[in-house]
Amino acid sequence: MKTFQHKTATSVADTLSILSEYGEKAKLMAGGTDLLGLLKSKSMVGYPDVVVNIKTIAGLNEIKTDAQGLTIGALARLADIAGSTDVKDTWPILAEAAASVAMPQIRNVGTLGGNLAQETRCWYFRFPNAIGGRIMCKRKGEGPCLAVKGDNRYHAIFGAKKCFAVCPSDMAVALAALDAQIKISGPKGERMVAMTDFYHPLGNALAADEIIVEVQIPRPADNNRQVFIKHRVRDTIDFATVSVGLVVSMDGETVADARVVLGAVAPGPYRATKAEAALKGQPINSETAATASAAAIVGAVPLSRNAYKLDITKTLVKRALLP
Ligand SMILES: Cc1cc2nc3c(=O)[nH]c(=O)nc-3n(C[C@H](O)[C@H](O)[C@H](O)COP(=O)(O)OP(=O)(O)OC[C@H]3O[C@@H](n4cnc5c(N)ncnc54)[C@H](O)[C@@H]3O)c2cc1C
Question: Hey, whose CA ends up nearest to atom 36 of ligand 1?
């Protein structure tokens, strides 16, 4: 690992002042579970001069509820989200997603903000510098996406452009299904970004001088059902090959509203709006579940080695709908 300065931030304002001083040369570190691996492999082009420890910012790890909903500070650890009684009682999909991330060691250190801002796991992007030099690509600012003609079994089937890597965050899927908003603080003040708008094919909405402060999640409608299902190669610890976040609210026996969000199939959490439309006003039974699951993959454009994700997606949507 190359050397860097390590600065400890005491507040959001302090963090912003360090970021404005060092610009692109500074990198925030919360739990460090993603950042340190990237720094060690030197797979990135830009290496930070300064790593800013933000774990020391007081109060940014709180999990709070009020009449409007749930607010989770960016520094809340995934283990705390998975274990929170408030979260488990009213937003169980979030607790399930947090509990599905990696293993206890990562969940005990990794934070919500870090989970959302983590880099893609694309194996071309992460190729270590020590083994013949890093691989350049569009996401790093230069060169084609090698996954298009290469080994693309874990890459995108929806919405990719220039880069076919998928968003690895399980929390993003659950948060998108819950219609969450991310509060970002920067030199111009605070702004809110919808979870569904946070990612784009080459990264996310954060500028180099910004920090995620918290995530706000509205209270779900009465009579709602929430499900998070994740398919992965190794059940003990793995990123999703496909995941589904489902939040439906019922009006008697029929669906009043539905959010069906797919994970690990696109640059960000992908709303399967055709599946949502197929469910609205319908009862949930094997027939409507089959229709919705078929609608979930409409518009998918698989690459040479990842068409298998279509069948997994359909199966997960069906399983989420039929308990
Ligand atoms: C072996 C392994 C298995 C994993 N499996 C899964 C999995 O199954 N599902 C899944 O979702 N994830 C998985 N992960 C990823 C893991 O969840 C993330 O590494 C972790 O959540 C990152 O949190 P952190 O606090 O350690 O972030 P850090 O490593 O500190 O930071 C990650 C990135 O986010 C930025 N960042 C951190 N906090 C903020 C903030 N508040 N504002 C703006 N930027 C910020 C940092 O600058 C950095 O770029 C896995 C990781 C490992 C190593």
Answer: 114
Contact 308, 215 (CB under 8 A): no
The percentage of the chain sitting over the pLDDT mark of 90, rounded to a whole number, equals 97
Does residue 250 fall inside a structural domain?
A: yes
Residue 209, ligand 1, Cβ within 6 A: no
Three-state DSSP at 81 gives helix
Q: What is the pLDDT of residues 38-93, one digit of tens each?
A: 999 999 888 999 999 999 999 999 999 999 999 999 999 999 999 999 999 999 99
Q: What is the pLDDT of residue 107?
A: 98
CA 258 to chain centre: 20
Domain that holds residue 233: 224-321
Question: Which residue type does 154 have?
Answer: Y
Range with lowest mean pLDDT among 4-8, 42-46, 117-121, 252-256: 42-46
CATH of the domain at 278: 3.30.390.50
Element (H, E) at 293: helix 286-296
Of 1, 25, 96, 115, best ligand 1 pocket probe by most atoms within 8 Å of the beta carbon: 115
Burial of residue 169, with CB atoms counted within 10 A of its CB: 0-12 exposed, 13-18 middle, 19 or more buried? buried
- Does residue 255 sit within a domain? yes
Q: Mind listing the pLDDT tens digit for each residue in 135-160?
A: 999 999 999 999 999 999 999 999 99
Q: What is the pLDDT of residue 236?
A: 86
Residue 118 lies in a domain: no
Kindly give the distance from the C-alpha atom of residue 48 to the centroid of ligand 1, in angstroms, as a whole number.
17
- How many residues comprise the chain? 323
- Nearest residue (by CA) to ligand 1, atom 50, is 102
Distance 293 CA to ligand 1 centre (A): 30
- Both tokens of 266, joined, read 């696109």
The identity of residue 214, as a single letter, is E
Say how many domains are in the chain: 1
Give which of 53, 91, 92 is closest to 75, Cα–Cα.
53
